[in-house]
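Practice problem 4.
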């Protein structure tokens, strides 16, 4: 999948993720603030400890500490040739990641870390969805965004093979758009989150 994707479950992927997070990376990420930092860097691009502190309502000392912990596991990296010794810029490397690591799930600490990361990731996704659904865009900044966006749910009766085919088709379309427009800038351009949830329901 794409560079800002954290895939919590395997199966149906159009290709192998660039990185499956090991137990060390999962443990480093297993903190609510670190999950949010990782997500902000994924969605909004490079940030400093100060800009992250402003977004999160934390101190820059706190965000600096969490940035160092993420960098120690190569989850993020310093942006080359940008910033100063006093103001460092950080980015999330491009490439998809998967939270689904069977070996990490074999230990209690690995399972706990995976559950924390997954829970915090999904909580943030839900918060962003609800903010938008409940009118999170200011009237003077909508500029057609509400008409262009969609929140939709559909149900079909499929076999595992058919679900895998659907997942691959949708993921391929999303990957194509992200690759073509990943670095787009200019008037009217803003980050867009693309959510794809497809899974079987209990009988």
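Answer key:
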């Amino acid at each position: 999948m794409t560079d800002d994707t954290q895939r919590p479950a395997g199966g149906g992927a159009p290709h192998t993720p660039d990185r499956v997070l090991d137990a060390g990376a999962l443990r480093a990420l297993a903190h609510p603030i670190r999950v949010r930092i990782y997500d902000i860097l994924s969605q909004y691009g490079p940030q400093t400890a100060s800009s992250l502190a402003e977004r999160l309502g934390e101190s820059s000392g706190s965000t600096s500490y969490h940035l160092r912990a993420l960098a120690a596991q190569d989850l993020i990296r310093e942006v080359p040739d940008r910033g100063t010794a006093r103001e460092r810029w950080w980015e999330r490397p491009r490439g998809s990641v998967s939270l689904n690591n069977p070996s990490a799930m074999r230990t209690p600490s690995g399972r706990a870390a995976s559950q924390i990361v997954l829970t915090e990731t999904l909580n943030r996704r839900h918060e962003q969805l609800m903010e938008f659904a409940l009118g999170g865009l200011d009237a003077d900044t909508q500029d057609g965004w509400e008409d262009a966006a969609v929140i939709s749910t559909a149900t079909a009766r499929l076999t595992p093979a058919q679900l895998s085919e659907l997942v691959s088709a949708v993921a391929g379309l999303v990957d194509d758009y992200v690759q073509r427009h990943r670095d787009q800038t200019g008037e009217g351009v803003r980050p867009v989150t693309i959510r794809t949830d497809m899974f079987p329901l209990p009988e």
